[in-house]
Write a structure and sequence with these properties.
The complex is a heterodimer of chains A (about 60) and B (about 725).
Chain A (H helix, E strand, L loop, with lengths): L1 H11 L2 H22 L4 H9 L15
Chain B lengths: L9 E4 L4 H29 L12 H33 L6 H21 L15 H23 L8 H20 L2 E5 L2 E4 L3 H19 L2 H15 L6 H15 L14 H13 L1 H13 L5 H4 L3 H23 L2 H7 L3 H30 L7 H34 L12 H6 L2 H31 L9 E4 L6 H6 L1 H6 L2 H25 L15 H12 L14 H7 L34 H9 L26 H10 L6 H5 L1 H17 L11 H11 L2 H4 L5
Antiparallel strand pairs in B: 1-4, 2-3
Helix pairs in contact in B: 1-2, 1-3, 1-17, 2-3, 2-7, 2-14, 3-4, 4-5, 5-6, 5-7, 5-8, 5-20, 6-20, 7-14, 8-10, 8-20, 10-12, 12-14, 12-15, 14-15, 14-17, 15-17, 21-24, 21-27, 23-27, 26-27
The chains are: A mainly alpha (about 60), B mainly alpha (about 725).
């Protein structure tokens, strides 16, 4: 436990860690944006957004 | 579907709607009880006589019944009802195990009953929204794991490859709530109904508000967003406005929310960097929160004309609007200069109720009105009554919130008012209380209105179910079997395979919340340098420790803080600001979050013992306009001296530097101190048989608060 503590304490004093954290943070969000606008995603998301509307048919069969 | 046509085979099955009905019933029953308790304690604040001098219904014990009831019983059961209904349909499968669903249901109800019994009896850990003692906290973990197992196994046997965004929010809820609850409830038992947290002071505060804020995030926000993303498109009969926006909404919300907890501790003894981190991430929360709200409201594009007539859509629109208001107000209150005015005041109470009554309540009502006719295969008894419910509930919410905003800002400004000579304009705390008592009456009326609307719904739902046919055959559903992804499919649409991997998705969600948790909590929990231990600060004496446990038992922390902020107006009123080392032996920490009464961090030595004795007997004896309850049982109930040795043993095991001699003779030491305090009181006319009563232990504790500082031991 002491080793972990010392390693952490040492790293928390690294200014670079803040920069890495910021880059990671921006990377996640730009990555998410890039992912949702990837080629062919429109039709996929259009079908996905219809999922809640596909489950209440009187004949009991779900809609494709 | 998304299978190659040649491979399509159909399964026939039915959904388990009985479990949904059970959770709907529980939502309605517990909702009524939680709201009734809320109206009652609101009335107690308006008129202290309603505490009736009875321990189990006094404000400090009943308030956790209200909060836990509203969060875990009302909102919790509503979430489970919605989750069980929607996930079966979105995944096109019955729940993995009907038995586990029922163990989950009955286990959860037993936990609620246990909470409703133990909290009024004074069995509490003393941390807000985490008051339940260790056996119940452990049971919550067990039941949650059973729910999670059933949930993930259901995902595993699904017939729809893709996992709709609502289920993403459910997954984040399940994983994060487990993480929050387990880490915040690690405590060492002293007896069956008493335990001490392993964290103390500033560490306990950080862990508690990391939990407390994220209970709001992952019990009252993410699952309700999941419900919104499922039930709003159903009610509006059109798909969600932007699925892309829902993805950004999800990831940004779960990633950012987990960091925001320290905004509950601005200007406290928490290190500055943690406060700043909490403030910045709280402000960033506006973006995903409003993204979700806008996505919800725009889902109604082309259907706004129906909002005029359909109560379900009214509830959704108002619920989303309150969500938007609360998620703008919350970040604003997280800005340090605004927090300086709003914190500890009723502004926070108004903010919280804007979210719970307006967002959680209205989304739940919309869901129940939509679900019940479908579950019971009938029509809603009265749309008019549902509309009436909406308007009464809406008026009640506005009355509640506006009265508390007014009370909070009024009192916050009165606390801070300093005249030209540098003195407090309102030096007597009670002046700032009497000014807002009329608003407490208005708040109680607002709560009563909201409860009235709920009763209207109960009647409407009762009549709706009464109209339902007695015997209904379960609907048999047919859906194509789900095949394992093939290389052919993978080559054609690799992203569709990835989006359908729930295990990977769950891991990524967990990582998103774990990053903030790790960075914020690790220094506090692992580093002994986090709080400088001052050797001059001594542990509580056995009698003071017993008095502290009485303070926790009576819920004093719900109305009194123990944290003087480094603001001029506070140091003028209370004395020097609080240091982290002062609460290093506090398990649990008692910094509080509300000042219905004044801060007590420096109360030790401020008044003589007799003042405290009379004050607890009847606060009006020493402060004529006080709204504090009376505590006659403290003068009847005897101190449990026998348990003190065990308490000191547990504290010592947690690192409190008691000597072996102190532990061994804890009871004797407490008797000696009690005798000393009682002798002084008896000499001033107090009855001679007071020495072994709870009030003596409580006086010992109160006189200790801030005493180390006043002796000059802390610089």
């Amino acid at each position: 436990m002491n080793v972990i503590r010392d390693v952490l304490a040492a790293h928390y004093q690294l200014p670079m860690l803040s920069c890495v954290g910021l880059l990671l943070f921006m990377g996640v969000f730009t990555g998410t944006i890039a992912w949702i606008f990837r080629s062919g995603s429109r039709e996929v998301y259009s079908r996905l957004s219809d999922l809640p509307l596909q489950d209440h048919h009187q004949d009991g069969e779900t809609q494709s | 579907m998304n299978q190659p046509e040649k491979a399509q085979e159909f399964d026939s099955f039915s959904y388990d709607d009985d479990i949904v009905k059970k959770f709907v019933h529980a939502t309605l029953i517990w909702g009524f009880i939680a709201m009734l308790a809320g109206v009652f304690i609101a009335s107690q604040l308006a008129n202290w006589r309603l505490n009736l001098g009875l321990p189990w219904i006094t404000f400090g014990r009943l308030r956790p019944v209200h909060t836990n009831g509203a969060i875990f019983a009302f909102a919790g059961n509503a979430v489970f009802a919605g989750v069980y209904y929607s996930m079966q349909r979105l995944l096109k499968t019955r729940m993995y195990s009907d038995l586990l669903s029922r163990v989950h249901f009955w286990g959860w109800q037993l936990i609620i009953v246990a909470a409703a019994i133990t909290l009024p009896l004074g069995y509490t850990v003393g941390k807000e929204y985490a008051e339940l003692e260790w056996p119940i906290a452990f049971a919550i973990n067990v039941i949650w794991v059973i729910f999670a197992f059933n949930f993930f196994k259901t995902i595993q046997i699904r017939r729809e490859r893709h996992i709709y965004v609502a289920i993403w929010f459910y997954i984040a809820t399940i994983l994060t709530t487990a993480l929050l609850h387990v880490l915040n409830t690690i405590q060492i038992p002293v007896s069956m109904w008493k335990s001490y947290p392993i964290y103390s002071g500033v560490q306990d505060a950080l862990v508690q508000w990391w939990y407390g804020h994220n209970a709001v995030a992952f019990v009252l926000t993410t699952p309700f967003l999941g419900l919104m993303y499922y039930f709003l498109p159903k009610a509006a009969d059109r798909p969600v406005y932007s699925y892309r926006l829902s993805i950004v909404h999800f990831w940004s919300l779960v990633f950012i929310y987990i960091w925001a907890g320290p905004h509950h501790l601005l200007y406290t003894a928490l290190p500055e960097w943690a406060q700043t981190l909490g403030m910045i991430f709280s402000i960033m929360l506006i973006a995903p929160s409003w993204g979700g709200m806008i996505n919800g409201l725009l889902t109604l594009r082309g259907a706004w004309n129906r909002v005029r007539t359909e109560p379900i859509l009214k509830f959704f629109v108002a619920g989303l609007t309150f969500y938007g208001m609360a998620t703008l107000e919350g970040p604003l209150l997280s800005i340090k200069s605004i927090s300086a005015v709003g914190h500890y005041t009723d502004w926070i109470i108004g903010h919280v109720h804007g979210g719970t009554l307006g967002w959680n309540g209205f989304i739940t009502f919309a869901m129940v009105y939509w679900l019940v006719p479908r579950l019971w295969n009938t029509k809603l008894y009265s749309e008019k009554l549902a509309n009436l419910h909406f308007w009464v509930g809406f008026l009640g919410t506005l009355t509640y919130v506006i009265s508390m905003w007014t009370a909070g800002i009024t009192q916050g400004l009165m606390w801070r008012a300093i005249d030209a000579s540098g003195k407090l304009v309102y030096p007597d705390f009670i002046e700032t209380v009497t000014r807002i008592v009329p608003l407490y009456y208005v708040r109680a009326v607002g709560g009563a209105l909201y409860l009235s609307g709920f009763v209207i719904m109960l009647y409407n739902i009762y009549r709706t179910i009464a109209l339902a046919p007695k015997e209904v055959e379960p609907v048999v559903v047919r859906a194509p079997k789900l095949l394992e992804p093939t290389f052919e499919m993978l080559g054609r649409k690799p992203h569709r395979i990835l989006e359908g991997l729930p295990g990977l998705f769950a891991v990524l969600s967990f990582v998103a919340v774990a990053v903030g948790t790790f960075i914020e909590l690790t220094p506090a929990v692992l580093s002994s340098d986090y709080v400088a231990v001052n050797p001059a600060v001594k542990p509580y004496s056995p009698l003071q420790l017993q008095g502290r446990d009485i303070y926790v038992r009576e819920g004093c922390y719900l109305c009194h803080s123990q944290m003087v902020r480094p603001l001029i107006s506070e140091t003028l009123r209370y004395g020097s600001y609080s240091r982290a080392e002062e609460s290093v032996y506090d398990r649990p920490f008692q910094w509080g979050s509300k000042r219905t009464g004044p801060d007590l961090a420096r109360v030790g030595g401020k008044y003589p013992d007799l003042w405290h004795y009379r004050h607890m007997m009847d606060p009006r004896d020493v402060t004529p306009d006080s709204i504090m309850p009376i505590y006659p049982w403290l003068y009847r109930d005897k101190i449990d001296f026998d348990v003190l040795k065990k308490k000191l043993q547990v504290m010592k095991s947690l690192g409190v530097p008691y000597t072996d001699d102190e532990v061994e003779h804890a009871s004797d030491l407490a008797h000696e101190e009690a005798h000393r305090i009682a002798s002084g009181l008896v000499a001033q006319g107090v009855p001679a048989d007071t020495e072994d009563k709870d009030i003596i232990a409580l006086i010992a504790y109160l006189q200790r608060l801030g005493a180390d500082f006043k002796k000059g031991l802390i610089q």
